[in-house]
Structure formats: structure tokens, C-alpha cells
Design goal:
3-stranded antiparallel β-sheet; alpha+beta; flat; 3 strands
């Protein structure tokens, strides 16, 4: 089964999140802690990707998983 993941269609969201990722060294800009679980693509979203029934955005709205 092939999973389709795309960037948010709102270019301003993508720009802001990518700037935050750059500032935090690749860690989720929406989280305070810098742990491996929060390194982009975060563990939360990787787990959601693994769920065949999940469709939606990652925590910081950068990526979208389609069914």
C-alpha cells in the first residue's frame, strides 16, 4: 500500500513552519522539548502515517496524510 503525504496547501503555513524548523535545528517548532520524538517528521505523525485509517495533518500542520 502506498501512502500519500503532501505539504499543506497554505504556503504561509509552510513558510512559517519551515522557518521554525530551521531555527530549532529540525525539531518541531510547536513543541518546547527537543527530543528525537519531536524531530521532523515527528513520532506522532509517523505513528499516524502507519495507521491505515488516519487522514489529516501532522501536529504543526506542515504535512497532510491522504487515505
Amino acid at each position: 500500500m502506498r501512502v500519500k503525504i503532501r505539504l499543506n496547501e497554505d504556503k504561509e503555513v509552510v513558510k512559517r513552519v519551515k522557518a521554525g524548523l530551521e531555527q530549532k535545528g529540525g525539531y518541531c517548532p510547536c513543541r518546547l522539548e527537543r527530543t528525537e520524538d519531536y524531530k521532523c517528521m515527528c513520532k506522532e505523525f509517523r505513528d499516524q502515517i502507519a495507521d491505515p485509517d488516519y487522514e489529516g495533518y501532522c501536529h504543526c500542520m506542515l504535512y497532510y496524510k491522504e487515505k
